[in-house]
Task: inverse folding
C-alpha cells in the first residue's frame, strides 16, 4: 500500500507544530505590498498587518504558480506516494484550478479537493486527512471523512472596517467614509462558497450580541471542535474563547490568520470556525 501525503495552501490557518507533527506540506500563496512580493509562509506574526497599515494601496494576493504545484507534487510522489491536496474555496482564489493544472503536469497520483472554506475551517479537513493518512487509512476512507467534515463545518466572520473594500474599489469612498463614521460592524457566514451577511450594527456591541446569541445555539448541539482566528489585536478573540470553550472538550485554538485573509478582511476582523460531530 502506498503512502498518502497531504498538501494544503497557506490560507489554511494551522499551528506550525501540527504541520510538522503530521507531515503536512503547505504551498504558499504570495502577497504584493507596494511593489514588493512576500511569500505568505515567510511572514511572521503581526508583520503583514504592519505592512498593510503603512501601504498606500491595498495589497494584491496571488495564487501559487501552476509550476510550483507540479514540482511539489512530483517531489512528494517520487517515492510512489499518493497525494491529497485540500485547498481554499475556488470562490476566493484560483488556487484549486492551479493545483489541478499542476497535478496534470506532474503526471502523478493527485486528488485535489476544494475545501469550500479557508482558514481553520479548511484546517479541520486537512488535519483529519493527515491523521487518517498517518494511521494508514485508504484514500477512499480519507476522502469520505474529509467530505463529512466539510458538511459539518460552519464559518462565521466579523468585519470591523470597510477600508480594504474601499481601497480595492469594491465600494465608493463616500460610502466607506460614512460607514466608518457610523462605526459599522458586519458579520457573515460562508455558505456554498459565498459569504452571506447575517447581521450588522454599530460598534463592538454588535459582535458581543452575536456571540451571546451564537453560544445559545450551541447548547443543544454536539460540537467536535472550535477554532478562532483574528487579524489585529487578539483581545476579542480571547473573549470569544472564554464564552465558547465550555461547548467543546478540546482547547480552542486562537490563531492569527494569514496575509491572504487579512488583505480582504482588514484589521480587527475575526472568524469563528465550528465542526460538529
Result:
Amino acid at each position: 500500500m502506498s503512502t498518502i501525503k497531504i498538501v494544503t495552501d497557506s490560507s489554511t490557518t494551522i499551528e506550525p507544530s501540527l504541520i510538522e507533527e503530521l507531515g503536512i506540506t503547505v504551498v504558499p500563496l504570495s502577497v504584493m505590498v507596494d511593489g514588493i512580493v512576500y511569500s505568505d509562509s515567510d511572514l511572521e506574526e503581526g508583520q503583514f498587518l504592519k505592512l498593510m497599515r503603512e501601504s498606500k494601496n491595498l495589497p494584491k494576493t496571488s495564487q501559487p504558480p501552476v509550476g510550483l504545484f507540479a514540482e511539489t507534487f512530483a517531489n512528494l510522489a517520487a517515492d510512489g506516494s499518493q497525494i491529497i491536496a485540500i485547498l481554499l474555496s475556488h470562490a476566493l482564489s484560483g488556487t484549486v484550478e492551479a493545483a489541478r493544472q499542476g497535478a496534470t503536469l506532474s503526471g502523478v497520483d493527485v486528488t485535489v479537493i476544494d475545501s469550500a472554506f479557508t482558514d481553520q475551517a479548511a484546517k479541520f479537513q486537512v488535519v483529519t486527512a493527515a491523521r487518517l493518512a498517518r494511521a494508514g487509512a485508504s484514500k477512499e476512507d480519507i476522502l469520505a471523512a474529509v467530505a463529512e467534515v466539510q458538511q459539518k463545518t460552519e464559518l462565521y466572520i466579523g468585519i470591523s472596517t470597510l477600508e480594504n473594500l474601499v481601497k480595492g474599489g469594491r465600494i465608493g469612498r463616500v460610502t466607506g467614509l460614512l460607514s466608518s463614521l457610523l462605526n459599522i460592524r458586519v458579520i457573515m457566514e460562508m455558505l456554498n462558497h459565498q459569504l452571506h451577511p447575517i447581521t450588522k450594527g454599530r460598534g463592538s456591541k454588535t459582535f458581543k450580541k452575536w456571540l451571546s446569541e451564537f453560544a445559545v445555539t450551541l447548547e443543544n448541539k454536539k460540537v467536535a471542535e472550535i477554532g478562532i482566528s483574528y487579524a489585529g489585536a487578539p483581545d476579542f478573540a480571547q473573549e470569544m474563547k472564554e464564552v465558547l470553550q465550555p461547548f467543546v472538550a478540546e482547547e480552542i485554538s486562537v490563531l492569527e490568520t494569514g496575509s491572504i485573509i487579512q488583505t480582504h478582511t482588514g484589521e480587527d476582523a475575526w472568524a469563528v470556525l465550528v465542526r460538529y460531530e
User: Anything to note?
Assistant: The longest helix spans residues 119-134. The longest strand covers residues 194-202. The radius of gyration is 19 Å. The chain has a mean pLDDT of 90.
